[in-house]
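User: Structure tokens for this complex, please. No commentary.
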Amino acid sequence: KQEVTQIPAALSVPEGENLVLNCSFTDSAIYNLQWFRQDPGKGLTSLLLIQSSQREQTSGRLNASLDKSSGRSTLYIAASQPGDSATYLCAKKVPGSARQLTFGSGTQLTVLP
Amino acid sequence: GAGVSQTPSNKVTEKGKYVELRCDPISGHTALYWYRQSLGQGPEFLIYFQGTGAADDSGLPNDRFFAVRPEGSVSTLKIQRTERGDSAVYLCASSLTGNSPLHFGNGTRLTVT
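Assistant:
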């Protein structure tokens, strides 16, 4: 069974801090990995997508990395702001069924002003 | 431009009733996905459409669930004989192709009483 794990489930940091969110997955065979943000009562907003041939992607204050050999991805957020408070989910595209995403349960981030 | 639109945003129904949930994808997106999200969990895959056809329906939990996309645009998820365990947020997503990043709607929160 494909599993995606995100630890911690919740994280609270003071404004301005740099932070790292973790995502680990079973089975190093991967098509791509995507990071999403979800605000309460809302759908998911795609942040970054890393193809299996890539090691990292950057967008503004966000940087996502992918290490297939260890089955890990990290999302680095620089200089965090209260507006970054949300739930962050990672999702892996399932090998053999290239159209499905398997999601982790998310990390709920709170950035305190 | 307009994003993925889902209606209704909230639906309360009685156990045993039939419900339909609608998804309007981004114009021109050929791929459409339905996911279900329970509280505190990541979304779980239900079904994927490429054009008008269901390319992968392996996530549908049982035969009470059915989805259509007759003209390759709007999709309807249909649930017969609803059960309390069907209560969740049903998310729809679309992408330009099957390999492009997914764009999610805000979901329909279904409550079965």
